[in-house]
Amino acid sequence: MQNRNSHLSDEELLLLADGELASRLAVQAREHLTACWECRTRMADLEGAIADFIHVHRASLDPQLPSAAGPRALLKARLASQAMTLRHSPWHGIFEPMRSKRQWAYVCAALLLAALGAWLGLRLRRQAVRLASAQLRLLPNRAFTPGAALAIQRQDVCEAEDNDPSWMVPSSVQQQALREYGVAPSQAREYQLDYLIPPALGGTSDIRNLWPEPYSETVWNARAKDALENRLRQLVCGGKLDLPSAQRDIAADWISAYKRYFHRNSPMPTG
Known about the structure:
Layout: H1 10-17, H2 23-35, H3 37-61, H4 69-87, H5 92-138, H6 154-159, H7 171-180, E1 191-195, E2 210-214, H8 222-237, H9 243-252, H10 254-262
Antiparallel strand pairs: 1-2
Helix pairs in contact: 1-3, 1-5, 2-3, 3-5, 4-5, 8-10, 9-10
């Protein structure tokens, strides 16, 4: 568990969503969710990410799979044909064992198709859970990092230089942020302590606006977030987006904001 153990951890939410949390712990987790809106919000985000993943992959995978309706209809037709043919045949008694074997072959084929569909569905859900788990690591925990910004106007943002001021975050604040996210001192170099709402959009160095972003991520990384920050600032200063909306969107879910403002499901390649 993380320091603020009044909330469910990301791992517990994932296990609960996947039905792998022990029965007693699952009951406790569900009881907690009924009373904790923050954890319910994180759970809803997680389930939404899983649902989106499954929807996208089924849309691309299903056309490549043979329809189950065809084999079922063929199985029924063949069984009916075999039954009708043998019922009126003088060799009915002789060929009865063979008929049973054929029926079993058809039944086994149908069961195999059903098992294959169930296996593919389970595999798809496992992939979705793994993706959601990775995305949770890339998004700050809203219980720890809801975002914090100065009470400034659009003019203040747009008249400032087009880069983040080099604010120095005190070492004590850095250590506290790492502890909240369960990052050991020996792992600190694997993360960048990032601003959720960037200073270029009025974000502050308050601990509520800081979270450790992993360096190891190769897709939704700091470069992608920097591109989003630049895009939002351009929209704000161009009068196409109000500053509170830009701050709210990047604080709520910066990956979803990237997809919306760039009209892409993955980051643009960087040279």
